[in-house]
Design goal:
This protein is α+β, with helices and mostly antiparallel strands and 158 residues long. It has one domain: Sandwich (Immunoglobulin-like), CATH 2.60.40.1890. 15% of the residues lie in helices and 47% in strands. About 4% of the residues have low confidence.
Length: 158
């Protein structure tokens, strides 16, 4: 039986490996930039208060606006986007301030959405256990047209 030369086959294998590496690299480079949550924190609330809020800055480096529609966490039964509204009633005691549940909070393209006390925020409703200051809570933010973002957020007394 004649001996077969394996050099062409190994050259083909090297070429295929190189081509596969280039394809993986191009897919990695083409992946859209991810949303980020900066300076995030959850407000510490004494037990037995059942609700608290998550704050921070959502950064959207993409070319499209993104709508934050909610979140999930084992720390609370539900997480919903909320905003704070002030209504001037003409009363000497000042405007009436209320929190309102909204369908979504919009993060503009190449922009930021600040989640802060007295403004937009995520409300964590029905805490499953008391929160301990300084510990982390894992939260998965859900968006209308973007991949979920899972973050660890510190509990702070502010």
């Amino acid at each position: 039986m004649p001996r077969m030369d394996r050099r062409p086959a190994s050259a083909l294998a090297r070429s295929l490996a190189w081509l596969t590496s280039l394809m993986v690299l191009s897919v990695t480079l083409a992946a859209p930039p991810a949303l980020q949550l900066e300076d995030a924190w959850v407000r510490w609330i004494p037990a037995p208060v059942p609700n608290t809020a998550l704050y921070g800055v959502l950064v959207n480096p993409t070319d499209h606006e993104v709508r934050l529609v909610g979140a999930t966490t084992t720390a609370a039964a539900t997480c919903m986007p909320m905003t704070t509204r002030k209504q001037d009633t003409g009363s000497p005691s000042g405007p009436v301030v209320s929190m309102v549940n909204v369908d979504a909070l919009t993060v503009p393209a190449h922009g930021r959405l600040t989640l802060a006390p007295g403004g937009d925020h995520l409300m964590l409703m029905g805490l499953t256990a008391p929160l301990t200051e300084g510990t982390d809570v894992e939260v998965t933010l859900r968006f209308e047209s973007a991949a979920p973002l899972t973050v660890r957020v510190v509990v702070l007394r502010k």
